[in-house]
UniProtKB/TrEMBL annotation:
Protein name according to UniProt: DUF4303 domain-containing protein
Record InterPro entries: DUF4303
Pfam families (alphabetical): DUF4303
Amino acid sequence: MGVDWTALEEAIRKSALRQAREVIDSHPEHVFYAVALDGVSTEPSDHIDLPVLALNSEQALARDLALAAVDMAPVGDDDLDGVEPVEESFYSTKWNPPEWHWCSMDLFDDSATELWGEALTQVAKTHGWEATIRRYYELLFRVTESLGRELAVGRNAELIAYVSDEDHADKILRRCLTPEQLQRHFPELVR
């Protein structure tokens, strides 16, 4: 069993774009700042997963952070004036897709996800984990590049699209973002 890499790329791109547009169009009062493909590990394992889609808006982030601040406030303390500003490094809530309002959105139904995942896993067994995951990530980079071009328009013109991976965030962000986007959002990664 092999993988039709072109078909897989197009399927992920179409599904991610359709779902992201549905969320964006359903929330015209929101400014979306990021969309990510998440959940694909670069570390060897017995199975290669398909990514999930995540996106977030400035309004959803502010609401979720305010709710978290209220939950952590001492009993009887309704004043949020003393809440410290949230760190905005890559490892903060702002950039962590599992903490976003719209997160872990499956791109396909269970049967399609299982078929693609099994095909990828078989390729890895035949051609090696590293070669397979490298090719798979190149595909995901192209998908996020396309998502960025399609979705960063109008009120969402500053939206960035990336593949999320905590273990290799610096390298992956440098691949997914323009130098200007890196400087604006992750200046610590600019050399």
